Amino acid sequence: MRYLGILFLSMFLSCHINVEAQVSERVSYKTVDGEELYFDYYPAKIGDSQKSIVFVHGGGFSGGSPKNQAPFAEEMQKRGYNVFVISYRLYAKGHGFGCDFPTPEKLKAIRYAAEDAVSATRYIVEHAEAYQVDPDEIYLAGSSAGAEAILQVLFNPFKSSMPDVFYIAEGFKFKGAMSFAGAVLDLRLVNRENWVPLLLYHGSNDQLVPYETAPHHFCPGTSPGYMMLFGSMSIFEKAKSLGLSVELHAYRDGGHEISSAMFRAFDEMDDFIKNTPATESDEAWYYLHDRSDWENLGK
Questions:
Q1: Would you tell me the crossing angle of helices 145-154 and 103-126 to the nearest 10 degrees?
Q2: Does a structural domain hold residue 7?
Q3: Hey, is 105 helix, strand or coil?
Q4: How many distinct structural domains can be found in the chain?
């Protein structure tokens, strides 16, 4: 009997460990040109708020993977949020996203990523009950290329010519968004009609995605990949001028490494989601941090 008891105890512990290890579930949300796109679903581990985050990873539209975002997703699920980290078409794979990659191709890569972010969100909304999601409490987030993708979803230069592709649900609007080193293609689309409360992180010396207004990768005007972008400071200033809710954390002399702030700024993200102001709250916060602040963020 002693050995039988040990066997049952061993089986119980094994099952318990397996359950704890299953922090995410991989779900296919659509197939495009034979490529299966999916999201890794991290269900909230505490509470019943049904608040959710749809996250788009970085990688220059040519690389990256949802699995690399696990430290972010696992921490946020521990704090009571459902997290969906999506895969999307990497149109620039094998080419890179530098100054030699033609601008029309860059725009296509961004559009594909934005389309896929919308498709994933549509799937989540359509299956909201199964994933314990409140469609009115969904936040969009992204890093680097992913931040560019999610900002084009919000301030969409493609939607007018293809509204069905970017349709999510009747009356749907994201509750808010978190962008880590992102930029928009058209600052005119940052307006009251499209606005959702934004949490922005950016390095003031980012040489890939401009902090203010500059060409992508600071490409010369004669290069095939010349493309103007409006970064976090330009977005912040536009929102502030319109009396819209926005929060910017800028890092003096920080480069593109600030795009990884989602692995450090857990308290700030948590606070933003729990205390999301109204869209037209006229609350604009600007924090200019020193390099030491970056080194200590999240510690």
A1: 70
A2: no
A3: helix
A4: 1
